[in-house]
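I would like you to sit down with the pair of lines that follows and say whether tokens and residues agree.
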Amino acid sequence: MSKVFVSDHPLIAHKVTMLRDENTSVKEFRELVNEIAILMSYDVTKDLTLKPYKVKTPITETEGKVIEKQVALVPILRAGLGFVDALMSTIPAAKVGHIGLYRDPKTLLPVEYYCKLPTDIADRQVIVLDPMLATGGSSIAAIDFIKKRGARKIKLMCMIGAPEGVKAVQEKHPDVDIYLAALDEKLNDHGYIVPGLGDAGDRLFGTL
């Protein structure tokens, strides 16, 4: 079964509280998401493998280390875009793919309407970006589609998760570790996370 990492960092806890506040402006919300993503990136990338690398300092030559396996960031449109700039600032060599999904009104199943991934996706550590892990449907579908394109090592990074969504992803993709800023109580009857923060996409892009 995949592992679930829930942050216990005081700075993240503080910023998540500010995110939840319904009075937080769109500008402030975007800034907080960016800051949380930067802080989370350290845990998400802490097991990247390193290889020796010789470098010459102004004093002498020495052997350092560089990341061996490169990273691909794959935000789920549209809310996942809120994480991209933050992770690109900490992993500037990462390539960025995009995946868009919508729910078929008749079957209620996720349908892919857009997917553009790096051609070497199979050789990269993929980090799927989806701020809210509610039912898990979108994340599961996105991971399904990414795996079909050859990805073999995938992580899922979210801000807020519900136990129902975490369980669903673990059952469908037991090889995908999940990283959360906070794990909330439950889903309500409308599929929203409680206490949650509302619709992350709407709050990021001001489409409330």
